[in-house]
Amino acid sequence: MPTIRQLIQTSPAKATELFAKLAETSGNAVKTRERLFSELKEELELQMRLEEQHLFPVLRKRKETKDLVSDALNDNKETRKALTELERTPKESEEFASKVTELRKAFQQHVRDERKELLPAVLKALDDEEAGAIVEKIEGAKAEVEEAKRTEAEERRAAAREEREKAETIARQEREQAEAVARQERERVETVRQAAQSVGNVVRVSTEAPRRVAETAREAVQSGVGTAAQMAQKAADFGMSSFSDVTRGVQNAAAGMTAVAQANTGLAMRYQAIWREVFQLAYQATQERTESLTRLMSVRSPQQLLDANVDLLKGEMQRFFDSQARLSQLSAEAALDAKQRIEEATSALKKGEDAAQGKGREGRRTA
Fold first, then answer.
1. What average pLDDT does this structure show over 148-177?
2. How far is residue 306's CA from residue 220's CA, in Å, rounded to a whole number?
3. Are residues 199 and 78 in the same domain?
4. Is residue 136 assigned to a domain?
5. Is the pLDDT of residue 177 over 90?
6. Cβ atoms within 10 A of the Cβ of 166, count?
7. Are residues 206 and 118 in the same domain?
8. Same domain, 199 and 109
9. Looking at the 3D structure of the chain, how many domains does it have?
10. Within this chain, do residues 249 and 320 fall inside the same structural domain, yes or no?
């Protein structure tokens, strides 16, 4: 436990150090000035409050120290006024620096007065027991203040940890959600690709079938083997085989498009449009197969067989190019939708991670 002499002589040490640090700052170090001024204000107010609560009431009762108390109280009043003005002054201004210098000079003079006038009077007016009681009260009050600071600091650190953990949890959940969305979109893109491949197979088989039938008929005509009915039957059998290929292709395309539509209702309209094109293509192919078989079975000469297949080939080739262009357009639009969803998911993931990192840094600064 310090003596009353040591208490009065050493109490200004921390405030003196803060004044020196504050005087060294520039107008660019606004945050540093705000922090140092806040610590200085807190330290000066604590000193004044403890003197006024525990020392001055005892000294006011002594005739020889009564006037000194009045002077000290006036000094405290001026100090509080200066602190209020400094608090309102922009910390980056030259005015702030000059006011800090003025307050520092006044504080140094106050310290000299206490050591030159107040301390000798206190030592003369108070006996050891009275002085010891005052010191004990002041030191006890300081300890309570320090304990309150430690408790508050620990609460801030705990709150910062909790906020940081909460932010990390949210960021992790957002990241997992974004990754899941991105994964789903990649799966949908793959489904679109497979469905488009099935569509391509339908188109390929649909256009290949008439050509193969026509070639069969032409070979029969060129070889001159068999009757027209036999040639037609051979070409019809070939057409039925091709028609089965078309049917299987349509079924595969339908399965792919159904999977895509079920995967995401938001993209279903895109894929339904593609499926309508596929269905229309299959429907047209079916009609052409039926008409082809009917015409093939009714021909009377190899030349009629060849002519019928040439006409069929021309019409179907035209439909092929039209359908291929439309399917390419729809597939491209669907792929852009999927790409946009992936980019949105990736953007959400990055924002979540940036937010978590920002809260983590803020939490560490607070702690």
1. 87
2. 9
3. no
4. no
5. no
6. 13
7. no
8. no
9. 2
10. yes
d(CA 108, CA 16): 8
Residues 84 and 185 reside in one and the same domain: no
- Compute how many other C-beta atoms are within 10 angstroms of the C-beta atom of residue 295: 19
3-state secondary structure 71-140: HHHHHHHHHHHHHHHHHHCCCCCHHHHHHHHHHHHHHHHHHHHHHHHHHHHHHHHCCHHHHHHHHHHHHH
104, 208: one domain = no
In a domain, 142, yes or no: no
Query: CB–CB of 1/139 below 8 Å?
Result: yes
If one compares 97 and 351, the residue with the highest pLDDT of the two is 97
| Residue with token string 């020392």 | 55
Query: Look-up: residue for tokens 């009275």?
Result: 130
Query: According to the model, what pLDDT value does residue 193 have?
Result: 60
Q: Which helix (H) or strand (E) holds 36?
A: helix 30-50
Last residue of a domain, one of 98, 126, 154: 126
Of the candidates 63, 92, 126, which is a domain's last residue?
126
State how far the Cα of 169 lies from the Cα of 159, in Å rounded to an integer. Answer: 15
CATH of the domain at 49: 1.20.120.520
pLDDT in tens, 3-22: 999 998 998 999 999 999 99
Q: Does residue 31 form part of some domain?
A: yes
**Packed helices 94-113 and 30-50: angle between N→C axes, nearest 10 degrees:** 30
267 vs 175 pLDDT, higher one: 175
The answer to whether residues 189 and 336 belong to one domain is yes
Q: Once rounded to an integer, what is the mean pLDDT over residues 230-241?
A: 52
**Is 216 among the domain residues?**
yes
Q: Are 113 and 187 contained in the same domain?
A: no
Higher confidence at residue 63 or residue 231? 63
> What rounded mean pLDDT belongs to the chain?
76
Distance of CA 128 to the CA centre of its chain: 66
pLDDT in tens, 30-42: 999 999 999 999 9
DSSP 226: S
The dihedral built from the CA positions of residue 106, 111, 114 and 120, taken in this order, carries a sign that is negative
pLDDT value for 40: 96
Nearest CA-CA partner of 167 in 355, 364, 365, 361: 355
Q: Give me the domain span that covers residue 300.
A: 180-366
CA torsion 184-185-189-195 (nearest 10°) is 50
Tell me the CATH number at 274. 1.20.120
Residue among 104, 167, 120, 98 at smallest CA distance from 9: 120
